[in-house]
Amino acid sequence: MSDVATDKRASPSKRGYGRRWQAARKVFLQANPLCVYCKRQGRTTAASVVDHITPHKNDTVLFWNKSNWQPLCTTCHNAVKQSEEHTGLQRGCAADGMPLDPAHHWNI
To answer: Is residue 33 part of a domain?
Structure first.
């Protein structure tokens, strides 16, 4: 049985990603069209995802708090951000070659 078939989460619309979210997402991406993770690394990439910086975990106040939103490309959202959330480490380097993770020994 696949993971998709056993996923017990509610549908996207029941988790808050319905029409209202789609409209807010569209406006946010129009105002913030570039991926902030790629920009940190000196790359210019179109954003396609509005990411919650701090996972909202069904907290509607945090969900709709625009200061908790950031524009990401699909690759950064699905790989880099997910890895950060699972490991607690910030991956990658800035354009100058310095690690992005403030806890990295080069940044101490």
So the answer is: yes
Query: CA neighbours within 13 Å on the CB side: how many for 17?
Result: 11
Whether residue 64 lies inside any domain: the answer is: yes
53: domain range? 12-107
DSSP 78: I
Question: What sign for the dihedral angle of Cα 28, 69, 60, 13?
Answer: positive
41-73 tens-digit pLDDT: 899 999 999 999 998 888 999 999 999 999 999
pLDDT band at residue 1 using 50, 70 and 90 as cut-offs: very low
Q: Is residue 47 within 8 Å of residue 71, measured between CB atoms?
A: yes
On whether residue 41 sits in a domain, the answer given is yes
Domain count along the chain: 1
7 is a domain residue = no
State the amino acid at position 24 in one-letter form.
A
Contact predicate 100/93, CB 8 Å = yes
Chain position carrying tokens 């997910």: 82
